[in-house]
Write a structure and sequence with these properties.
Layout (H helix, E strand, L loop, with lengths): L2 H20 L3 H24 L1 H22 L1 H9 L8 H8 L5 H9 L1
Helix pairs in contact: 1-2, 1-3, 2-3, 4-5
Amino acid sequence: MGMLKYTLNVALTAYNRGYRVGKDYPKQQQPFLLYSAITLFIVTGLTIFNPVGALFVFILPMISSLLFTAWTTYDHHAAHHYKQGVHWSELPELHEQIKHKISLAESFTQKLS
């Protein structure tokens, strides 16, 4: 999966996946739902009060942050597929070990797809 597709997939499914995973962990799901609802309530109120201001000060930065967070995990995710089972905390080291094997052209092409 290319970088763009991965980024959009992760960003567009993040909250749904968080909710589904939370079903198995109700202690963590409760604050997730509470703070998600509070955020939605506040942003909705601000959007009604000042739509343009809310868009530029809250909505676009929130979307940008989610997209950026998903984008920055691409390399770790790709290294994970190279050697499944590696703990996420060890992925930066694994990437450093194998990056010489990844051609620049191949890497660039994957990022564009």
